[in-house]
Please model this.
Amino acid sequence: MALRCFPIWACPQTAYYHYPLLGFDIKRRRIPLWECSSSASQRAVTVVGGEVPYGRELKKPSDEMGLTQESPQPETFHRDLSMLPKPLTANSLTSSAGDDSKVRISFQGIPGAYSETAALKAYPNCETVPCDQFETAFQAVELWLVDKAVLPIENSVGGSIHRNYDLLLRHRLHIVQEVHLPVNHCLLGVPGVSIEDIKCVLSHPQVLLTPFPSDSSKFTDVFVYLQALDQCVNSLNDLGIQRVSAKDTATAAQTVSSSGERSIGAVASVRAANIYGLDILAQNIQDDANNVTRFLILARDPMIPRTDRPYKTSIVFSLEEGPGVLFKALAVFSLRNINLSKIESRPQRRRPLRVVDGSNNGCAKYFDYLFYIDFEASMAETRAQHALGHLQEFTSFIRILGCYPMDLVS
Model:
């Protein structure tokens, strides 16, 4: 880069500079200042048609001062102000419907799973990426292979999904959205069969999880979050159909489609039936008609909290030792009229037991818990900020998992 220096002259008069910290004044004269310019900086200025109606030239030093310094080449401002970049606003940082096609979302399962349906409900034009395990869906976001991940967190019939709560704490992703998905379990069969031809159905049962191994990458994810067979026990018993477990609902539909057996059916979603070319023999066969699963959308960066619509904030914390500490911790929300919509406790894996010293001489032990809480307020609200500041007085650990808009769609 070629450098060219030229002086910037000022009136050569004497000036006094006062330095109070040093305790004396300094008498000095102004001297020429030198400016460094390059050809690259000149190319950044564009002149349109040789006209400069909105620009101005740098004037040469006055000859009256007796200065004969060489002046630089004239520089102008760009006259088309509309070409300048616009400042970012809050709306620029939120996703719009037109951006759905650019979003890639990972989910656990294969095409046709309920998690994929939840992703498509949040982003209708997104690209879904199937993963074998929930852990893999998290890692895909962390490795920048996808933009977001969708995670089932609780079901109105089956309850909370504890494994996924643990994954929220283990990974550093942020909750940016929630999706409430009504569950519509369908009885599916190969084309041309009737309900009377079905003798057994494939779907996933309720499976209890064993503790995490130290190396989570070797953990085979067999957890079934919707417990489809258990949610359709009465309907399947009325039909006299035997239940056979499968990895998940979409896998069950894929297995029935590939086998072509007329006596085997599957309990899965309408989307799975369309993908694998199966007939829908019956819809809404779940025993509880009001069956809803709540999903979370996770991203690398948190969402900027706002106050233009109802927001929800999810946090996790552990408490200091002492009587009534949990009551005091929860009271910080009640004092500020903040509603708690969810509270979940999980034993701390690294420190499962807490020893109580004192009168019991260290003999009393009890579980040390983590508490997951969802409260209905935005972190942009002063009351929420004061509540968390107050909560820190009673906690030994606290982390905000995300602040995101509430899903109010029926």
